[in-house]
Design goal:
By secondary structure, the protein is mostly helical. The protein has one domain. Helix content is 90%, strand content 0%. Helix 1 crosses helix 2 and helix 2 packs across helix 3. InterPro entries: PPE_sf.
């Protein structure tokens, strides 16, 4: 569809690429896109934080397990020693469970990051293509004193068909991603 769109409207496609580049390179435009559609880099930073939590809590679990298995607690006899070892065993299990939960949060955050990236790319491409094509179409109409209006109308119809298909695909993909993410978190 992209090739067909480029063949049907090469000037609009070129203008669209320029707008897309400008959105990514100009700080105010990129910030606006990040505000509207999300910042994948910020989401990845959050996922890395969850990775760090996973490793740290697992390390704490390893330390407690080492203490339980050979840290000199065997010399502590009686009810208090038995209770302490039992509680330490529960704490080891809890630390590993929390580590697993943090790992799941990292995976869920990365899944959300994929959704953010998809939405962000879609919004950027949609805006840049709309702006690029409108500018090119208006220029075609103005430069031909209106004679290109039927050609522009055909290009507009092609763009509507193309974006309808793309929007449908993105929405279906987002629904699937949200269902998958919900299942992961559920």
């Amino acid at each position: 569809m992209n090739v067909a769109g480029t063949v049907l409207d090469p000037f609009g496609s070129l203008a669209s690429m320029g707008v897309s580049w400008a959105i990514e390179q100009c700080e105010p435009l990129r910030e606006a896109l990040d505000w509207f559609a999300g910042d994948p880099e910020a989401v990845e930073v959050d996922a890395i934080t969850w990775d760090n939590i996973t490793a740290e809590v697992a390390s704490i679990g390893d330390d407690m397990l080492a203490m339980l298995e050979g840290g000199g607690l065997d010399e502590w006899e009686g009810a208090a020693g038995d209770a302490y070892r039992a509680m330490l065993g529960v704490n080891v299990d809890c630390a590993y469970a929390l580590s697993g939960t943090a790992a799941a949060m990292a995976a869920a955050t990365r899944g959300a990051g994929t959704v953010v990236t998809t939405v962000r790319d879609f919004v950027r491409d949609f805006v840049s293509e709309c702006v690029g094509h409108v500018v090119a179409w208006l220029a075609e109409i103005l430069l031909t004193a209106g004679l290109a209006t039927p050609i522009v109308a055909g290009q507009l119809a092609g763009a509507v068909i193309k974006w309808t298909g793309i929007i449908f695909g993105v929405v279906m993909g987002l629904i699937q991603s949200i269902e998958t993410l919900n299942a992961l978190l559920g």
